[in-house]
Design goal:
Length: 265
Amino acid sequence: MQTSSRTRTGLFGVVLAMAIGCGGQALALDPNAGVTRESGPFDLFRFGFSAYKKGRKDEAVEAYKYAAEKGHPGARWALANMYAYGDGVVENDYEAFKIYDDIARQGVEPGSQDTGYFVNALLSLATYYQKGIPGSPIKANLGAARQLYFQAASAFGVPEAQYRLGRMILEGQGGANDIQQAKKWLNRARVSGHPAAAAVLGNVVFEEGQTVRGLAFMTTALERSPASDKAWIQAMQERAFSLAGEADRRTAIALAQDMLAKGLN
């Protein structure tokens, strides 16, 4: 399953490390080591994370399964990620989907330390619903994807969700096309430092006649974007620059340089 590295891969280490804190050394999952299948969910989860970091993924999967059975949300989420990526187990998107769906259905209390797992599950489910899962009961459902992105974007202010929601609204996927609403969500993501959102918003306002502002947004986006996004952002930016007049190009470059220097998005 393909998804943005900002969404799951980046959260994987961050969320787990925050949940675990300063854990001790990993122990073998056997009675003599003090960690068994009867151990508490947190101990199993901590063991699984340590085993994973040391490359012992079979032990990590075993520990996560036991911890997940005991209701540990982090273990369920980590296990779902391993199925989604085929990481230490045979890739199985439908199995990953079911776990993410279970996490999402259970919800989360405001301010809970499990919020990261819950939000990430929403994003993962939305991504699956955008394309469906071949050979499974999960078919593409753009309306469901859009609603999940809206939940993560509005209730939790997640820039990636705001960006994806903005694009779906802009393209009329899963609901009505609404340029103003699309711009609102793209701008929220842009202000939070999302380069792709800045690029798409820049192109929208450029097409609306805000030439300098649009070019500046696309230029700053290209400068700050990860390598995986540079090709399409550069193509968008170069097309816009080819259509702009020389004076607007110069002004836009100066504005972009000023925005970059001031740390603005």
